[in-house]
């Protein structure tokens, strides 16, 4: 038998004697293969054996190198496990100075805010009776200017914007006056507790609390004064905003007409 390798697929072929130099078929890929002479087939078999031997030696060398590479990792893991087993438990590190400062500020922050609010309320209680007479005079002056000057200006088309903006500014004078008046009446009649309730719980200010206090104590003149100031606040503000918006709309219409006339 003549043994050799298929040049197409690499399968090993054994042909019967007497076919040397002839043609045989590969049992794997079924391709026609020329049968080599005996001396050529022997050399091919030796080469195949040498190739197989070299591959086995190479695989054994790779296995040895892999084992050598894995041994330090295994040893290192064993050393780490031993250190973790013998290491003492971690101790709780004390907080740093920055952490202590942040903790202190977090605890003192609400207290400081409360103290500041109390001081501001006391300052407002001290300031209200002193500034309220001047605010009343300013409100009378703003009312006179609004009725005698700003209202006529807001009714005339060329000066409507000036009158509307002036009325809105006058409303803030009335608003400051009614706020300090409500604060002073609430503090005087029902005390600081009612002021705090009006400012922080209801969220609508001290003016409604002052109106309730004057109503329950039959202080009709003070109640009427608060109502008149509230009407002036919202009346002048709404009317001023209406006049300003109308003046702006008229200005836009005039500008559009001017552009239309220029196009014509």
Q: Alpha-carbon distance between the termini? A: 113 Å
Q: Roughly how much helix do the residues carry, as a percent range?
A: over 70%
Alpha-beta content class: mainly alpha
Average pLDDT reading: 79
Please report which band the strand proportion falls in: under 5%, 5-15%, 15-25%, 25-35%, 35-45% or over 45%. Answer: 5-15%
The biggest beta sheet is recorded as:
2 strands, antiparallel
Count of distinct structural domains: 2
Radius of gyration: 52 Å
Tell the overall outline: elongated
User: What is the H/E order?
Assistant: EEEEHHHHHH
Strand line-up in the sheet with most strands: 1-2
What does this structure look like?
This protein has 264 residues and is mostly helical. The protein folds into two domains: 2-73, no CATH class; 117-257, no CATH class. Helices cover 77% and strands 5% of the residues. The protein contains six helices and four strands. It has helices at 38-86, 97-155, 160-189, 192-201, 207-216, 220-263; strands spanning 2-5, 12-15, 23-25, 32-34. Strands 1-2 form a two-stranded antiparallel ribbon. α3 (160-189) packs across α5 and α5 (207-216) runs antiparallel to α6. The longest helix is centred in the middle third of the chain and has 59 residues, at 97-155. The mean pLDDT is 79.
